[in-house]
Design brief:
single chain; 11 helices
């Protein structure tokens, strides 16, 4: 749990910003907390709120949120070997609290300590998730309630890019990772002019597909 504390430096401003932005978009407190408690995915929450404020069609909002969260499928796949043998209730808990930060901290910890028992892995993941998710929810509520009194010169929006840079940079350790990152960035920039977040919906699967292809080719070379 203590290893999660540095993440709060950016998680708390990130959540405060979401509360402020969501209220400015016209959501009430219950709707803001519904996003933060039920969706529990900062990037897709921001995407959905932005599209809603732009009066985008509901299906575009839903598809954009799903596209942003497609990375969770990759996170889940990479965690399968570490959580094999968990019960249905444990899988439900892990799926609900699986976010960028809990994944990044956990997978790095498991790789450094491969001899951990299943109960130890679940305990580590749970401690990390609680230490991050609870402050996220609390800070979202604080931003929604007190957003109007936060001075405009306090730039809370720094938290979003710093959060993802801090998580992603240490994990770009293979050609597949680098290829996926490069293609997704180029595609996002190339499709930035498309309406209602469609560019992001295209960039995300292109990046993942590139990473998968490079991974397959790399494995074939190793076998050869």
């Amino acid at each position: 749990m203590m290893q999660s504390v540095p993440m709060l430096i950016v998680i708390v401003p990130f959540a405060l910003l979401f509360g402020v932005v969501a209220r400015e978009a016209g959501l009430d407190i219950a709707q803001v907390m519904g996003f933060s408690v039920l969706v529990l995915a900062g990037a897709s929450q921001f995407t959905a709120v932005q599209l809603l404020s732009d009066n985008a069609p509901v299906w575009i909002v839903i598809l954009s949120g799903l596209a942003v969260n497609l990375r969770m499928a990759m996170y889940s796949a990479s965690l399968v070997p570490w959580f094999r043998g968990t019960s249905g209730a444990q899988k439900t808990w892990i799926a609900y609290t699986l976010i960028d930060q809990s994944y990044a901290l956990s997978i790095q910890h498991y790789e450094r300590h491969p001899k951990l028992t299943l109960s130890q892995r679940i305990a580590y993941f749970s401690g990390t998730a609680v230490a991050i998710c609870v402050p996220w929810m609390c800070a979202s509520w604080t931003g929604a309630v007190l957003g109007s009194v936060i001075p405009d010169d306090i730039a809370l929006d720094f938290a979003m890019p710093i959060t993802f840079l801090a998580m992603i940079a240490p994990m770009l350790r293979s050609a597949a990772h680098l290829a996926a990152c490069f293609v997704s960035i180029v595609a996002a920039l190339a499709f930035a002019g498309l309406p209602s977040g469609l560019g992001l919906m295209l960039a995300a699967p292109l990046g993942m597909a590139t990473g998968a292809v490079v991974e397959v080719l790399t494995e074939k070379r190793k076998r050869a």
